[in-house]
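In response to reviewer comment 3 from the previous cycle, which asked for concrete evidence that the modeling workflow produces usable outputs, we include below a single protein chain processed end to end. The sequence was submitted unchanged, and the resulting structure tokens are shown without manual editing.
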Amino acid sequence: MPRHRHTMTVAASLGAVAVMIGLVAISVPLYDLFCRVTGYGGTTRVAPAPEGLNGRPIPEGLNGRPIIIRFDASLAKGMPWRFTPEQRQITTHLGEQTLAVYNATNLSEQPVIGTATFNVTPAKAGRYFNKVQCFCFTEQRLEPGQSVDMPVSFFVDPALAEDETTAEITTITLSYTFFPISHRRDRS
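The workflow returned the following structure tokens.
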């Protein structure tokens, strides 16, 4: 009987460890999905262009109030690029599709592939910040010394002005950090 109890305890412990490992394995993708859907933690949303605007602002009476968007750029340790926003800030209107441009230059003597992570502050504005097109959706490869302009097209949902928790927001900062994916010499 004690041997059976010992076997059951070991089996239950191994089962618990397996469940915990499974939860750890799926927690990152589930958290990422949760953040993208809700805008939690300043994660921006991906959206089609705002309907019916065709690049024009919503009339002022329909919550098309002005909003300032600031731009920030940083590099992860070991990323041999220069990465800067072309403009430090833009004044746009809620619902207006807007284009901003970042510049990147590979300062190394070898090709470098990078990927950008992003967020907005204040974090509670993340659910209203919608990207239509962004360089951050794909990996970026820069040859030695190559410079590129990288656009991001976005709009801020007019619902930001109607939400009691975000109605006071007049400035949003869009931040990107580039990380190296590979840093190698081509052997061709």
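Residues 93 and 169 are 13 Å apart (CA to CA). We consider this sufficient to address the reviewer's concern, and the full set will be provided in the supplementary archive.
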